[in-house]
Specification:
The protein is an alpha/beta fold and 129 residues long. The protein is built from 2 helices and 8 strands. The strands form 2 sheets. It has a 4-stranded mixed beta sheet, covered by helices on one side.
Length: 129
């Protein structure tokens, strides 16, 4: 609940990131297998997904195991059947496609077990604000 005594937060989107165990393996997966353009690499690897910054961050030993969190990177696709076929042809295991309210959904994992999903709208798309 918003309190009139507190100023509005000035939040803006920055990035989505995943912790990974093997940077080179993950860079290959996101760059070569999925075809995402890599913007830069230093301590982290940065990719562009239609103007959204996505980063791979190396896991430190004291951090939680990658893939154990509840965040997911979701890709909107026009033809989920074709995209699943293409991923499987590239050696990526995917779930079966299942209908959900407003669309179709399928899941797959990166080399560190982070879950990613594919989403195809079947009842229109969300309005951009």
């Amino acid at each position: 609940m918003h309190s009139a005594a507190l100023p509005d937060l000035k939040l803006s989107f920055d990035t989505v990131f995943y912790y990974v165990n093997d940077m080179n393996r993950s860079i290959s997966f996101y760059g070569e297998t999925l075809g995402l353009p890599m913007l830069s690499r230093d301590f982290v690897a940065r990719f562009d997904i239609n103007g959204v910054l996505f980063e791979l961050v190396p896991t430190r030993h004291e951090q939680a195991v990658p893939g154990a969190g509840n965040a997911r990177l979701c890709f909107k696709v026009q033809n989920i059947e074709e995209t699943v076929r293409q991923l499987r042809a590239r050696g990526v295991e995917t779930s079966e496609i299942k209908p959900e309210t407003g669309g179709l959904l399928a899941f797959f994992k990166d080399p560190d077990g982070n879950e990613l999903c594919l989403w195809q709208y079947t009842t229109g798309t969300l309005k951009q604000t």
